Amino acid sequence: MAGVAFLNGQYVPLEDAKVGIMTHALHYGTGAFEGIRGNWNEADGKMYMFKLREHYERMLRGCKMLWMDPGYTIDELIQITIEVVERSGFQQDIYIRPMAFKSEEKVANLNLRSLADGFMCLAVPFGNYIDSDGAISCQVASYRRIDDTMIPPRFKLSGLYLNSILAKTDAIAMGFDEAILLNMDGHVCEGTGENIFFVDGDTIATPSLESNVLPGITRDTVIALAREELGMKIEERSVDRSELYTAEEVFLTGTAAHIQGVGSVDYRNVGDGGIGPVTRKLQDLYFPIVRGQNPKYMHQLTVAEPKGAAS
Ligand code: PMP
Question: Nearest to residue 259, comparing CAs of 272, 270, 275?
Answer without folding.
Answer: 275
